[in-house]
Amino acid sequence: MAFVDRRRPENVNISQILRINLFALDNGHIYYEIQVTLSQFYWTIKRRYSEFKELHDKLVAENKVENGLLPAKHVFGVKNEAFLKKRQVDLEVYLLRLWHHLR
């Protein structure tokens, strides 16, 4: 039997459900681990910044979100630990804003 969360979206504290826990270097690419937790269940996926950008571009094209919502892409210093930690936080904020904007 599948778990169904019957809470209404406006009553859900998304910051307790959605987190970007860490980033990892794999085959020369940076991946961000996104964890979604509902009750005792959780799902984890890994995504690159380019995948966030692809999603964002589609949402902008459909006039669902503003263009400036996604943290900017940087060419230099992207493997610097301080930069990666900041981007990790910025991407989590981005996902939280998407949640509030699109619900």
Layout: helices, strands, pairs:
Blueprint: E1 18-26, E2 29-38, E3 41-47, H1 49-61, H2 81-102
Describe this structure in words.
The structure is a single chain. The chain is an alpha+beta fold and 103 residues long. It has two helices and three strands; from the N terminus they run E-E-E-H-H. It has helices at residues 49-61, 81-102; strands at residues 18-26, 29-38, 41-47. The chain has a three-stranded antiparallel β-sheet with strand order 1-2-3. Strand 1 and strand 2 form a beta hairpin. The chain is globular and about 35 Å long. The protein starts with 17 loop residues before the first strand and ends with a helix. The relative contact order is 0.18. The model is unreliable at 1-9 (pLDDT under 50).
Tell me the number of strands.
3
Outline the biggest β-sheet.
Answer: 3 strands, antiparallel
Distance between the amino and carboxyl termini: 27 Å
Oligomer: single chain
Widest β-sheet, arrangement of strands: 1-2-3
| Shape verdict | globular
Brief summary of the model shown:
This protein is an alpha+beta fold and 103 residues long.
Name the descriptors.
103 residues, alpha+beta, three-stranded antiparallel sheet, globular
